[in-house]
Design brief:
With 307 residues, the protein is an alpha+beta fold. It has 2 domains: 74 residues, OB fold (Dihydrolipoamide Acetyltransferase, E2P) (Beta Barrel), CATH 2.40.50.320; 159 residues, Glutaredoxin (3-Layer(aba) Sandwich). Helix content is 27%, strand content 26%. The chain is built from 6 helices and 12 strands. The strands form 2 sheets. Strands 7-6-10-9-8-11-12 form a 7-stranded mixed sheet, sandwiched between helices. Helix 2 packs across helix 6.
Length: 307
């Protein structure tokens, strides 16, 4: 990319040759610096996609718009989901029913909307689907057991980790938003590192990531995903199971997974991470994606100490 230029196959001689060579070295150096700058600028740009849809919910406190959007070309199919808005001022005046266009920016650890523009307004064709009713457990209640299959294809049960504090979260491997399931993977990876390096926790904590997409996330898929995120099997298990079993298991923690469109890999869901104490009782549930690894470590310690 930064090779020196040559104007002729025959070298110059004498002073003219020295002046020419010096000029060409300066030109070559300038071109090289320019090319490097352009290359770095290109590499630093986050992927950006055009989004078009209708607002179905507005949450100023969380700086989020829930949008029923069309297919996002090259990124994800049409679905209804909540998006963070980068600039709070873009939330002003937005109401349910607004038709909008926006830019969806995907960074390594987060996705957000910019340039949110209202193009019209229409009545909602249907109300946002309500999550299924569920009996959510209270802290101290026994957690119902469930039959799982881990990433190696081996049968598992939640009761198999009795005697340990267990953190259970819910993900799916095809989740496209970096601040949803991929963020939970990163948080669990950080917790795994902390647990592995803390003798008081190493044999008393286990992490479990349960898929919300059992039709796709078969054991071989989960095994490859576990390797990709650095999961250590003795500390962190990925699991699938029968859809009805997984639905009942997640519902007791307040997990809501809306029925997926069979033609779409996207899944509309909320985020729940449950901490189960060594006796198999619910200690607490962390909601959303704003908790930090230190928060989960604190809750795991509390579950152990309270037992």
């Amino acid at each position: 990319m930064c090779a020196a230029f040559r104007a002729t196959d025959e070298p110059f001689t004498g002073a003219a040759s020295h002046d020419y060579s010096a000029r060409m070295r300066r030109v070559s150096s300038s071109v090289c610096r320019a090319l490097i700058a352009l290359s770095l600028a290109a590499c630093s740009r986050s992927p950006t996609y055009d989004l078009r849809g209708q607002i179905v919910a507005v949450d100023p406190a969380r700086q989020e718009l829930t949008i029923k959007h069309e297919d996002i070309t090259g990124f994800m199919p049409g679905m209804t989901m909540a998006f963070k808005v980068k600039d709070a001022s873009m939330m002003a005046g937005k109401t349910v029913g607004d038709l909008v266009t926006a830019k969806l920016v995907i960074e390594e650890s987060q996705g957000f909307l910019t340039k949110v523009t209202v193009t019209g307004h229409a009545a909602l064709t249907e109300p946002p689907p309500a999550p299924p009713a569920a009996d959510v457990l209270m802290p101290g209640s026994p957690v119902a057991d469930v039959r799982l299959i881990d990433q190696d294809g081996a049968p598992r049960q939640v009761s198999g980790w009795r005697g340990q504090a267990v953190a259970v979260t819910f993900i799916y491997t095809r989740c496209p938003m970096p601040d949803f399931c991929p963020l939970l993977d990163r948080q669990f990876a950080a917790v795994q590192q902390e647990v592995a390096g803390t003798p008081a926790l190493a044999n008393r904590v286990h992490l479990v990531s349960v898929t919300m997409d059992p039709a796709y996330d078969k054991p071989p898929v989960l095994l490859e995903h576990a390797r990709r995120v650095g999961a250590r099997p003795e500390l962190w298990t990925f699991a699938t199971g029968e859809p009805a079993d997984l639905e009942r298991f997640g519902a007791q923690f307040g997990l809501s997974v809306l029925p997926p469109d069979p033609s779409s890999p996207g899944i509309v869901h909320n985020l729940r991470t449950a901490i189960i104490d060594p006796a198999g009782k619910l200690s607490t549930v962390l909601t959303g994606n704003e908790w930090r690894p230190a928060d989960l470590i604190k809750e795991l310690r509390r579950a152990i100490e309270g037992h």
